[in-house]
Amino acid sequence: MRFDRFDRAIAETMRAWGGPALRLSFAVIFFWFGILKPLGVSAAAPLVLSTVSWMPLFSAEQWLSIIGWWEVIIGLSFLFERTTRLAIGLLFLQMGGTFLPLVLLPEVTFQPNGIPFLPTMEGQYIIKNLMIISAALVVGGTVTTRSQVDEDRRARRR
Questions:
Q1: Residue 155: its pLDDT value, please?
Q2: In Å, how far are 23, 100, 102 from 118, measured between CA atoms?
Q3: Region 144-152: what's the mean pLDDT?
Q4: What is the pLDDT of residue 146?
Q5: Which of 25, 57, 79, 111 has the fewest other C-beta atoms within 10 Å?
Q6: 158 or 76, which is more confident
Q7: Under 8 Å CB-to-CB from 32, ≥6 apart: which residues?
């Protein structure tokens, strides 16, 4: 019995802190990695530049800066509960582009030893974005209006 109560208390604490912790983590990661791009000091710049070199309207360097500022906006949007939906929408749009190097640059994202599905460091960097997408789904599932939260609490008490 004591273990059950202890386990429930831990789970409730994790439930209470998990969403805010994920939002803060997203804010830090997207702002930090994003701002490096327009500043010209991102380790991901060569990969991004190679990926966007075919895109119209702007030069690859301009696209790099646009993508960086987009990521900064995602990060800042995750800081506030009210803009979390916006952050998730922008994140999902951005994620589509992050997987492009797997298709457009397989010589960069996969090892050339003939064994399929053996990613390089760059490939691993991209594939880990599946976890970011999953975490965004979790955060999105916690975004409710204050009245919905209050209504849910009242319903549980009945």
A1: 72
A2: 31, 17, 12
A3: 61
A4: 54
A5: 57
A6: 76
A7: 75
Packed helices 84-98 and 60-78: angle between N→C axes, nearest 10 degrees: 150
Among the listed residues 90, 95, 77, the one whose alpha carbon sits nearest the alpha carbon of residue 31: 77
Q: Alpha carbon of 124 to those of 8, 27, 29, 52, 147: distances in Å? A: 36, 22, 17, 19, 41
Residues 129, 32, 71: CA angle, nearest 5 degrees: 60
Residue type, 78: F
Instruction: Please report the pLDDT score of residue 34 as a whole number.
Output: 97
Residue 115 class from Cβ within 10 Å (0-12 exposed, 13-18 middle, 19+ buried)?
exposed
What pLDDT is recorded for position 152? 66
- Residue pointed to by tokens 């965004």: 136
Residue ranges of E strands in the chain? none
Is residue 72 within 8 Å of 84, Cβ to Cβ? no
Residues 16-41 have pLDDT tens digits of: 898 899 999 999 999 999 999 999 99
Chain-centroid distance of CA 1 in Å reads 39
CA nearest neighbour of 92 among 128, 134, 133 = 133
| CA dihedral angle for residue 54, residue 61, residue 69, residue 31, rounded to 10 degrees | 110
